[in-house]
Amino acid sequence: MSADNITTNITQDASNSTSAAPRVFSYDMLLRPEFLLIEAQVIFSALSIIWLGSHASLRRPPSAAPPRTKKGKRKPKPDQYAEGLSASDAIMLPIMAGIVLMGLYYLIEWLQDPDVLNKFLRVYLSLASIASLGKLSGDFLDLLTSLVFPDVWADRSGIIYHIDSQRRCQLLCDGDDVETGTPVEGKVSPFPGPLSGLRPPVRVNKLLWEIRHLFTEEWKVRLAIHGVFSGETSLKLNSLFGFCVSMLVTLVYYLTGWNIFSNLLGSAFSYAALTLMSPTSFGIGTMVLVGLFVYDIVMVFYTGKGASMLGLGDIVIPGLLMGLALRFDLYRHYQKKIKREPVELSSEVAVDGSSEAVTVTNTETQYKTIKAPFTDPKGQWGNKFWTSKFGSLSPVATSISAATFSKPYFYATVAGYALGMIVTLAMLLVFQHGQPALLYLVPGVTGSVWLTALLRGELRDMWNYTENGSLDTEDVVVEVDEKTGETKEVVAKKETKEDGETKAVVKKPAAGGEDDHDVFLFAITAPKEAPITSHVAGSIHLGQPDRRSDAGRATLGPGRRLRRIRRGGGRRE
User: Fold this and answer.
1) Which of 36, 106, 284, 362 has the most other CB atoms within 10 Å of its CB?
2) Dihedral of the alpha carbons of 133, 137, 143, 149, in degrees to the nearest 10
3) Which residue has the higher pLDDT, 173 or 145?
4) Whose CA is closest to 372, among 408, 407, 332?
5) How many angstroms separate the CA atoms of 455 and 255, rounded?
6) Does residue 197 carry a pLDDT above 70?
7) Of 467, 437, 409, 408, whose CA–CA distance to 318 is shortest?
């Protein structure tokens, strides 16, 4: 999938579809290894982009409570629900796309030289891909960082160690409560596994912990232009490196035009689109796909196309509904964890027919929904790797296993997409004419997700699911039907977010006077150095006793039998 092919595909026939069939059709071609390899590569590449983009779009579902803030950690920002596609967008999107592509088609006919437009589109797509490739590169660097600096790891015997950046030590914890963990003597490095026992010099060890801190904590970027724009955002160091990588790759691609960089930019563009765009419900998502389904058919056969290839629209459009299916799987996962606590509700009712004001207090038992705290499944690659036993993909740490969930709806859409791609390629060979890929992909994806809901008896839940924020409630009291088990909301209070609170802010004047202001400001602020907490007292030693240890220090000898050594009397218990 080269850049020239991409732009030529846009300008020649303005469509997203698969490559044309050979001139002479033979059923024997379906069994040729080289043909099967090429088609498998196309399907695998498309599914890989959708898989990564869908998992990158995961966020806290409305069925989960905000994650608990650990001591010494910055409170996370309130969840931002994506401004997804609405019903009006589902109607206007294919219409506007048709107008734009028809305009490009007639512009090419008038210019009689598509190379001019190809060069313009090549520059435009290159600039548009910088942010997309920066996002993809930053996430990939985060994955590598999590492998080097995980939060937890497990040894061969299944003992879980938590790496605490604040205390610069490794903790032996019972369960998920890191606050009550006991520092392990001898494990002072920030690395997991065999490297955890390294004892580098003090300065080198301090530098390693600082590097871990800089790569794992968020940085702050501020930009201000007086009278025009002022804002700030938080990102990680890997995001800055990813932006530099994207600038370099885009420059090399523009100068050389190599196909490998074109494929990389196209993949990054699709990846970023899947993380930013989203239908707010399955109904709207189905409408979007159906509208573009009609649009793709009309545009492919209207322009009388000759040869083309798999377009980015054939990846992004079905991928939007597939990402929504994955987030619905996460929503259902936490919905099953919701607990209900009984509460007593009192109400006063006035008694009629009495000369005096008489009220009667009625008390009834209802149930309050308690949501499980959210564990972000993103960024857990390193933790899963270092806590999984060899030959097993399931992590042994409870905190990590909480981030895994079943994905029946997402797997169903993956199967539907793969089936649609196979049918598309088969029809391409049979008819020896370029096929609109959405003609087969849309029924495969939409049919699979709705059929799965029907077979699981969850059509109502899927239809009512939305990502517009209306389901994100807390302290909800419900009435439970004893016969059917269904719940009916009685009292609901929307989640209170910090952004909605009114706070008094006192702004101190600058040293030069109250009228001083920033004409232009661009600043990148590194995270503050983590405060070091003493962990000498109460530490434990795994292995042979340390005779130089302080009095009262607990020691685990061979066989992990707890012994206590007293100084002075020589008596050992």
Assistant:
1) 284
2) -150
3) 145
4) 332
5) 53
6) yes
7) 437
Nearest one of 237, 188, 181, 245 to 213, comparing CA atoms: 237
Hey, what amino acid is at 419?
A: L
What is the rounded distance in angstroms from the CA atom of residue 249 to the CA atom of residue 247?
6
Q: What is the pTM of this model?
A: 0.76
Amino acid at 500: G
Pairwise CA distance, residues 560 & 434, whole Å: 69
Per-residue pLDDT at 453 exceeds 90: yes
- 304-322 pLDDT tens trace: 565 456 788 889 999 999 9
Q: pLDDT tier at 548 (50, 70, 90 boundaries)?
A: very low
pLDDT band for 86, please (50, 70, 90 cuts): confident
Query: Any residues with CB less than 8 A from the CB of 41 and at least 6 apart, and which?
Result: none
Residues 179, 428: Cα–Cα separation, whole Å: 60
When pLDDT is cut at 50, 70 and 90, the band that residue 4 belongs to is: very low
> CA angle at residue 329 from 326 to 335, to 5 degrees?
145
- Helix (H) or strand (E) run with residue 440 in it: helix 438-456
Contact 61, 331 (CB under 8 A): yes
Distance, C-alpha 375 to centroid of its chain: 12
* Identity of residue 194: P
Sign of CA dihedral 95, 97, 102, 103: positive
The whole-number average pLDDT for the span 271-275 is 90
Instruction: Name the one residue in this structure whose structure tokens are 């399931």.
Output: 394
Is the CB of residue 18 less than 8 Å from the CB of residue 308? Answer: yes
**169: buried, middle or exposed (CB in 10 Å: 19+, 13-18, 0-12)?**
buried
For residue 405, the number of C-alpha atoms closer than 13 Å in the C-beta half-sphere is 27
pLDDT in tens, 25-73: 555 666 677 777 888 888 899 999 999 999 999 988 988 888 766 555 5
Q: Among all chains, which residue has been given the structure tokens 């369960």?
A: 175
Residue 562: is it exposed, middle or buried by C-beta count within 10 angstroms (0-12/13-18/19+)? exposed
Integer Cα distance of 319 and 313 in angstroms: 9
What span, in angstroms and rounded, lies between the C-alpha atoms of 495 and 339? 18
Environment class of 365 (CB within 10 Å of its CB; exposed 0-12, middle 13-18, buried 19+):
exposed
186 vs 207: CA distance, rounded Å: 18
3-class state of residue 6 by DSSP: helix
Cα separation, 29 vs 48, in Å, equals: 26
Per DSSP, helices labelled H in 112-236 are 114-148, 202-216
CA distance linking residue 398 with residue 373, whole number of Å: 14
